[in-house]
From TrEMBL:
SMART domains: WD40. WD repeats lie at residues 207-248, 249-279, 296-327, 382-431. The keyword GTP-binding does not apply. It comes from Glycine soja. Keywords: Repeat, WD repeat. Signal peptide: none annotated. InterPro entries: JINGUBANG-like, WD40/YVTN_repeat-like_dom_sf, WD40_PAC1, WD40_repeat_dom_sf, WD40_rpt. This is Protein JINGUBANG.
Length: 458
């Protein structure tokens, strides 16, 4: 059974037409476009009857501060005092943010704030490991979060992108300023029959709307363009200034699980069809055109995560078989090797300096250090989660000394917690000669084939 199989899955996301969620969360808890197990309140939009979904209007209604979940927060924070007192561990667990219900699906860190998204539809904001603020979307669990200057963008299970901004009067209040596609663009596009595409048999939708869950969001370096990738096999390009959808690209034969934006107009996509593809962006007037360049990887196992280093010259791709392939850009992207550190699917990747972090369904986080000749060594394994590690975010440690390259790593898991780690590149170098022992396969959940973890719907 390979990663492209639709049977025998392990931990799966909810809301998929074919999938079931880890934790047995019922799909009828969602009221977005994609809950097909219950009757819709409105008929699907068709070329013959291009009426609007009332939920679109609801998402563009004025933000109600009373909806903020902060006053009823079920979170608690647990600090690891030993990490601050000077532990012998060079890579220390600083603390845990634990939630009574809801799996953690997305993270984003900026300055001294951490944003976390879960299947409760809440986005919570943390400062110094204490809950600082919170806000809630009308529908759709939070599958992706990115920060674009003063704006916070969230991608949801219902196929929508929501844009939030901190209130100028109170930095603990977040106002929703847009829902993509915007109501104005939605109405304008719905007037032309040529703007409708067939997404399923006898079902047509306008091309600017994702009809399945958003899997990830990414930004260009100057934050002028927003990329959204989806389980509907496409990625879409949005202009940040007016939130207009510029382009929709049918990129793969199956769900697009990951997308990262590189330098020089390069865009990388990874899919459940087992491929990693490169696209080149061309500016055409006021729009964009993305042209297929090449396929970097083609395999049976699903590609579940992508990451690119800060310099933009090393690309990493995690797969459902527990491997991480990587390519180095010299003149062209050249495949340099495979990182073998996990027993189950790699679900997330992050980079910081010369370090690479891989989170897996085996509940561990591998810390890899890249050498000057682009070799990688597993210098540490961070353990502490009791569920699959679903998302990672890293930022520079503000308390680090001038000559010390130290990072704060945040890890979100389906065990309903976020853990905070301190990782030093200097300490990682000291570990090179004694790699930590790797748990045996017997300590992990038994499956007839590890590739069964390669869900198209991770």
């Amino acid at each position: 059974m390979t990663g492209s199989s639709r049977k025998g899955r392990g931990y799966l996301d909810e809301g998929s037409v074919n999938g079931r969620m880890y934790g047995k969360l019922k799909k009828d808890e969602f009221d977005g476009y994609n809950s097909d197990n219950h009757q819709r309140k409105n008929n699907p939009i068709t070329m013959d009857a291009p009426h609007l979904d009332p939920q679109m209007e609801a998402d563009n209604a004025p933000y109600d501060a009373s909806l903020s979940p902060l006053s009823k927060s079920p979170w608690s924070s647990h600090m690891n005092e030993d990490a601050f007192a000077g532990s012998n561990e060079n890579d220390a667990l600083v603390g845990s943010l634990v939630r009574e219900e809801g799996h953690i699906y997305s993270l984003a860190a900026t300055k001294d704030l951490l944003y976390t998204g879960s299947d409760s539809k809440n986005i919570r904001v943390w400062k110094n490991q204490e809950e600082f603020a919170g806000f809630k979307s009308n529908s759709g669990l939070v599958k992706a979060i990115v920060i674009a200057g003063e704006k916070i963008l969230t991608g949801h299970q219902d196929g929508r992108i929501r844009v939030w901004k901190v209130s100028g009067k109170n930095d603990q209040q977040h106002k929703r300023v847009a829902t993509l596609p915007t109501l104005r663009n939605y109405i304008k596009c719905s007037m032309k029959p040529s703007n409708y595409v067939e997404v399923r048999r006898r079902r047509n939708l306008i091309w600017i709307k994702h009809y399945d869950a958003i899997s990830c969001l990414s930004l260009t370096e100057d934050h002028s363009l927003i990329y959204s990738a989806s389980w509907d096999k496409t990625f879409k390009v949005w202009r940040t200034s007016n939130f207009k959808c510029l382009e929709s690209v049918t990129a793969h034969d199956d769900a697009v699980n990951a997308l990262v934006v590189g330098l020089d107009g390069m865009v990388f996509t990874g899919s459940a069809d087992g491929t990693v593809k490169i696209w080149r962006r061309e500016v055409q007037g006021k729009g964009t055109k993305h042209l297929f360049s090449q396929t970097l990887l083609k395999q049976e196992c699903a590609v579940t995560a992508l990451a690119i280093n800060e310099e933009g010259n090393v690309l990493y791709a995690g797969s459902s078989d527990g491997l991480v392939n990587y390519w180095v850009r010299e003149t062209n992207l050249e495949h340099k090797g495979v990182l073998r550190g996990h027993k189950l699917a790699v679900l997330c990747l992050a980079t910081a300096g010369s370090l690479v972090f891989s989170g897996s369904a085996d509940m561990a986080i591998c810390v890899w250090k890249r050498s000057l000749n682009d070799d990688h060594t597993c210098v540490n394994i961070l353990s502490g989660h009791t569920g699959p590690v679903k998302c990672l975010a890293a930022e520079r440690d503000p308390e680090a000394m001038c000559n010390e390259r130290r990072w704060i790593l945040y890890s979100g898991s389906l065990d309903k917690s976020v853990k905070v780690w301190k990782v030093s590149e200097n300490a990682a170098s000291a570990h090179n000669n004694h790699q930590p022992p790797r748990p045996s396969l017997d300590q992990f959940p038994r499956v007839s084939s590890l590739r069964k973890m390669g869900s198209k719907r991770y």
